[in-house]
């Protein structure tokens, strides 16, 4: 647990220091001031993390006044770091909100422009689409009608032939058709230009980001709890910064306090009482004589008797482990078998550390692979032999 807290403290501390340093960097306007401001803000954030553990360490070790003083400094550094973290979150949020507002404003402008262009197209009304070729044909027809009129009626109507009136009517109709074709061509060009503008506006609307609101969190909360204003967003930012810094302080305090937990003491061994010397009176002739029998030696624990030999880990494993491809045996079972054999043969067992060391050497020498599953460690492709197999191997 202490290692996990230490890892989280380092990870979150790096985030806090980087965030406050970046905020300090953005507060200056030249490179030197930016570096100095970033270092100052980052140092304060680092002290806010470290001084918590220092205050606890001094307090536990009996330096109460010094621990209290460092604790006050840690609290002040925490306040400054909290305000800097809030500033960093707010500045980042402000930049994001400004970007989202720009997107929403651009989309609103494009929609207004689209409505204006579509209204202009609707206001044109009905017309006959006409291209330049139709206008050229109407122009040629009008010129031909004018030439025929002049030929029949004269340049200035100085002569009027029998078909003069008909040629005048034809000339008037051709001129009217030319005017209609020219008007339709102009209307067609205007409509095409408007439709091109509409297509470009629609393309901008399609390619732009879809942003429903500037601050989605505040909008969602305002729908849940009507009456919330934009100030609630600032409160949420302050809460995020406060909880983040408090989490770092809590993890650092827990990391330091777990280091002062006293380990559990092993149970005390029961002492064997000393036997008093025995005095026996033996009758002798012709007089009685006192015979003193020396006291018996203090009994010794079996585990500490130096006269008993130590059970060989490698020999016992060689006898009691047999090859079994695909099978496995837990190391705890191997240790139990080693202790059982030593107890049966009246031999002393090695310490757990020595057993693990000799087991590692044995596995590397023989080539036995190991695998960990959860909290358990297994030896692969082997199994414990039965006691009957042991006697067979020994014989």
State the helical fraction: 55-70%
Cα distance spanning the termini: 51 Å
- The shape, in one word, is elongated
Structural class: mainly alpha
Proportion of β residues?
5-15%
Unreliable spans = 262-304
What would you note in describing this structure?
This protein has 395 residues and is mostly helical. Helices cover 67% and strands 8% of the residues. The chain contains eleven helices and five strands. The protein has helices at 2-27, 31-60, 64-124, 132-153, 164-207, 216-224, 231-258, 313-320, 331-344, 352-366, 387-394; strands at 279-282, 289-292, 321-330, 370-373, 376-384. The strands form two sheets. It has a three-stranded antiparallel beta sheet with strand order 3-5-4. It has a two-stranded antiparallel sheet with strand order 1-2. The protein is elongated and about 160 Å long.
Give a quick set of tags describing it.
three-stranded antiparallel β-sheet, mainly alpha, 395 residues, two-stranded antiparallel sheet
